[in-house]
Amino acid sequence: MKVSLENKVKLSIVIPVYNVETTLERAVKSLFDNKFGNIEVLLIDDGSTDNSGQICESLSKKSEKIYCYHKKNGGLSSARNYGLKKATGNLIAFLDSDDYYLPGCIDAVINDFQEHKPDIICFGLKKGKTEEDSVSLSHEEYIGCSNIEAIKLLFKSKAIDFYAWNKVFKKEIIGNIEFPEGKLYEDMVPIYNAFKIAKSVDVLNFLGIFYFQNINSIVYQNFNPKQYDNIIQREILLENIKVDFPEFLDLAMSRLVDGYLSTGFKIGLSNKENTDQKKYYEISKLEIKKLLIDIRGNNEIPITKKIALHLYLINSSLYSILYKQILRK
């Protein structure tokens, strides 16, 4: 039976804001398309140079549930960490300012929390440039997963994955975890750390958020050294898994391979006269040669990906062409 606990449950939604004047209001509006009303919205203006800061101020004046904070630019993780310190709710969610919740998302999450009291709730997503051309990813419902079961799902399910924005956390779980500042692919290790200490995780079978694939994001652009964080964060995760859950070592190695494949694609597309391209191609080649030895006998990694790593070592340009046509799909 669902019991009304609105006076006892408060959801804090942290929204980092940086130069998103065209999408910010849409993101905030999506939070109020629910019956549950005990929320606070924390808009963290991370030194925007467009009208985003003014929009934050305007939105905060329209609702006592919206709070506006301005800070020096420090990146997505810095803004999230700042928002976590300001949040007063016992539940925490993160929403990127170019994404938005789908109708009823908050109500579904709160209903589940009222009934089962999990430490973390996960839900499905749509992703694309528009809803019309989006891909939907959801997972069958699991209630009361242990941390071991849930961490396996992090690795195995594309609908759950190591994202911060398709989950709601008890503050006692996420409140003392910091996102790594100045890094890309910043979700992976903090989300793992949250799942590691969770005693109960619920996976809900509904689509709760639209993830906007912004082609202007640095993640989708041609290679630059910051994008090597994609590999570094996976290596950190792998080292944690070796200690905490060695039974998932093959899964963590598979994620590391994916990091090399996607980063290698960008390296292979880069101008061969680019100094960074040359440097990181040589670094990645040395690391992949060792990796190929480590993943022998790893059945979590398809043979096609192992062959792709060999091809990258031989001809990065040809590899990138084939990656785009085959592996990236």
Automatic annotation (TrEMBL):
One of its GO terms (molecular function) is glycosyltransferase activity. Transmembrane segments: none annotated. InterPro entries: Glyco_trans_2-like (IPR001173), Nucleotide-diphossugar_trans (IPR029044). Keywords: Glycosyltransferase, Transferase. It comes from the Bacteria. Gene3D superfamilies: Spore Coat Polysaccharide Biosynthesis Protein SpsA, Chain A. CDD domains: Glyco_tranf_GTA_type (cd00761). Residues 12-173 form the Glycosyltransferase 2-like domain. Pfam families: Glycos_transf_2 (PF00535). PANTHER family: GLYCOSYLTRANSFERASE (PTHR22916), GLYCOSYLTRANSFERASE EPSH-RELATED (PTHR22916:SF51). This is Glycosyltransferase 2-like domain-containing protein. It comes from Enterococcus gilvus ATCC BAA-350.
